[in-house]
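Need residues for this backbone.
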């Protein structure tokens, strides 16, 4: 029986990567180990007894180890102290907002070329860097080569069919970070002074304010940090601008009219008002998100640290008592009772300090946001005469047509059995969030055009959301009929931007051909 027991424990030790603790007390709760040993001695030669004992040992050890690991694990899938539904929603939102490789590519190539670097396209999804400027090599936080035979911005293209490897350029790579740092250094005055942009997503002049939000614990350690943006208009109304509103903007032409907009009186107090709104509205939400993630982890860590250090301290005290008895009997123990008691006392001090540190780490608060940039964003109408007629941002529709398109999609979603929620007009990326109970939501971008239109316009943020959300994404094309809403028609596309090329980084978006895209669509699903 001992052979079977030890073999089973060794088998589980290998399965759990050596993480097998004192499992015997946990494993045999229904049938005590002492009873099994007695039965083995009395009846162990009987085949039916041997089979029964092996069955109990196999099941008991496996179950005991799983229970003990689950109890002592510092991270748990159950996360009893966290709202799983809210965490799931936060993760889904983060997936929809993350930057895709082609946007990192566009930003890097534009900045790298401006700094004097030379990069050219090679195989599909790959590039060759023939020259890295000296100033980038000297400021890098890691080794940077003078040239790179193959680089890529997409992990899918790191290896090709021949096995040739390309270096992945992404945040964290020394060259990528050096380009970013040098661009910020050279553009700091512009960032501080601000600029004027044009966007098809605004209808009146607005100030876009960019801040850094930060959450720190009581040890003054930053535990979370993010960029955040807000729009404020001339009436002082402030609203969130989304995670990357600049993707839908281009530099405004330097006309006298545009330059004059910098002197609008309401801009003087706009930054301060936007920062105050962020403090009152966005920072508490950010703080709660961070607490939701960290509280469960830190509370469980605190419990486990306390339990494990208590167990070790008790063991040392017990061994000290045994050693003292041996010393009194004239024997020499392996370690003196004085040394063991000193270790136990030292461990208690470490325990108190560790728990006090964890308590301080549980105390989190948001720091005041730091304004790092601002830009006056003008509507397309303000500079319409300076924008070429073929520019994609001209392919938009009136509010009435857009309203009919959204209404038809909302009705269609309800007919499909989902619960649609219309998003705010300023929500960048999609118009409707629709879901069935227990399922991840579907993001729907609605493009409505009058029947006969030749094209439609999609912004960078809309493409970004589509690529990140697939397959939980739909592009809804609504053909608005002049005869009335009852004649309107809608088609859905699930992955409309597969193989998409971001194009120039200085573009606000992209023009799509209506008839071609409509032909790819199908009945709502």
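Answer:
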């Amino acid at each position: 029986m001992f052979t079977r027991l030890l073999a089973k424990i060794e088998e589980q030790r290998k399965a759990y990567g050596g993480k097998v603790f004192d499992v015997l007390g946990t494993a045999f709760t229904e049938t005590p180990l002492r009873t099994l040993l007695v039965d083995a001695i009395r009846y162990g030669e009987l085949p039916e007894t041997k089979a029964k004992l092996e069955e109990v040992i196999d099941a008991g050890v496996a179950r005991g180890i799983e229970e003990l690991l689950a109890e002592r694990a510092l991270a748990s899938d159950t996360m009893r102290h966290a709202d799983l539904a809210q965490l799931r929603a936060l993760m889904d939102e983060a997936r929809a907002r993350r930057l895709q490789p082609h946007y990192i590519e566009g930003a890097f190539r534009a900045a790298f070329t401006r700094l004097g670097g030379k990069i050219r396209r090679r195989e599909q999804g790959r590039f060759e860097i023939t020259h890295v400027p000296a100033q980038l090599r000297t400021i890098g936080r890691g080794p940077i080569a003078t040239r790179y035979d193959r680089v890529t911005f997409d992990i899918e293209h790191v290896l090709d069919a021949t096995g040739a490897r390309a270096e992945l350029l992404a945040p964290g790579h020394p060259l990528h970070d050096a380009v970013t740092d040098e661009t910020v250094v050279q553009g700091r005055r512009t960032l501080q002074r601000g600029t004027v942009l044009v966007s098809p997503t605004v209808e009146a002049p607005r100030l876009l304010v960019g801040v850094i939000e930060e959450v720190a614990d009581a040890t003054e350690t930053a535990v979370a940090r993010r960029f955040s943006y807000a729009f404020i208009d001339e009436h002082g109304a402030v609203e969130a601008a989304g995670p990357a509103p600049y993707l839908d903007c281009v530099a405004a032409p330097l006309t006298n009219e545009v330059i004059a907009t910098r002197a609008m009186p309401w801009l003087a107090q706009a930054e301060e008002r936007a920062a105050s709104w962020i403090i009152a509205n966005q920072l508490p939400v950010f703080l709660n998100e961070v607490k939701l993630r960290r509280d469960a982890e830190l509370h469980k860590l605190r419990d486990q640290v306390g339990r494990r250090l208590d167990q070790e301290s008790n063991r040392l005290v017990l061994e000290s008592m045994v050693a003292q008895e041996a010393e009194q009997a004239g024997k020499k123990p392996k370690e003196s009772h004085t040394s063991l008691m000193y270790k136990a006392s030292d461990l208690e001090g470490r325990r108190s300090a560790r728990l006090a540190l964890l308590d301080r780490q549980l105390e989190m608060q948001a720091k005041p946001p730091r304004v790092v940039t601002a830009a006056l964003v003008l509507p397309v109408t303000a500079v319409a005469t300076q924008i070429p007629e073929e520019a994609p941002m001209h392919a938009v529709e009136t509010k009435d047509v857009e309203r009919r398109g959204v209404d038809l999609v909302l009705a269609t979603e309800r007919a499909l059995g989902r619960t649609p929620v219309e998003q705010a007009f300023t929500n960048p990326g999609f118009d409707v969030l629709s879901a069935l109970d227990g399922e991840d939501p579907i993001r729907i971008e609605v493009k409505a055009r009058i029947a006969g239109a030749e094209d439609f316009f999609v912004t960078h943020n809309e493409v970004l959301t589509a690529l990140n959300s697939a397959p939980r994404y739909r592009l809804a094309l609504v053909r608005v009929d002049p005869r009335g809403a009852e004649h309107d028609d809608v088609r859905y596309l699930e992955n409309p931007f597969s193989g998409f090329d971001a194009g120039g980084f200085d573009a606000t978006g992209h023009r799509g051909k209506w008839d071609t895209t409509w032909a790819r669509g199908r009945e709502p699903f």
